[in-house]
Amino acid sequence: VAAARLRSDGRRWRILVGHAAGEAAVVALRKSAPDTVTVEPARPDFRQLLANCAVSVSQAGYNTVVDILQARARAVLVPFARDGETEQTLRAETLARRGLARIVAEAALSGAALNTAIDAALAAPRVDLAVRLNGEAESVRLVTKMVDAL
């Protein structure tokens, strides 16, 4: 909401609030949001929204990152990093090194920092990457190959 307030380009924003945050969070964000922002609970058509968005701003959970890559969306990632968590930061850094995302560290998150990352993402081309989503089958194949080699 703070980032949207700082922008004067008239872009529309959609903030999806996860189910764990609850309805009170949706209501509070709606009250504080400018007219350019729609706040609503997470939606089942998230992947379609990603495919049509200018930029996705998300945490860097595994499923969300796969969805972003599959949708070929420009992305700004704000990895969850509290309580010594490193998984999302490592994932986000890997994507950033490959030019597939911009990162705003959770500790540095502000409207201005988010807008800087969004502007950088908007200046980049849409992601052109085919994502293989057969990790389970590939893992079974590799483990079977290793066991057969014993």
Question: What do these coordinates show?
Answer:
By secondary structure, this protein is of the alpha/beta class. It is 47% helix and 12% strand. The chain has seven helices and five strands. The strands form two sheets. A three-stranded parallel β-sheet has the order 3-4-5, with helices on both faces. The protein has a two-stranded parallel ribbon with strand order 1-2. Helix 4 links the parallel strand 3 and strand 4. Helix 3 crosses helix 4. The radius of gyration is 18 Å and the shape is elongated. The chain starts with a helix and ends with a helix. The mean pLDDT is 93.
SS summary, helix count: 7
Strand content: 5-15%
What is the average per-residue confidence, as pLDDT, rounded to a whole number?
93
Query: End-to-end span in angstroms?
Result: 57 Å
How many distinct beta strands?
5
What would the principal axes of the Cα set say about the shape?
elongated
Strand order of the largest sheet: 3-4-5
Residue stretches low in confidence (pLDDT < 50, at least 5 long) are: none
Main pleated sheet:
3 strands, parallel
* Rg, Å, rounded: 18 Å
Give helix and strand order, one letter per element, not per position: HEHEHEHEHEHH
- Give the fraction of residues assigned to helices: 40-55%
Class by helix and strand content? Answer: alpha/beta
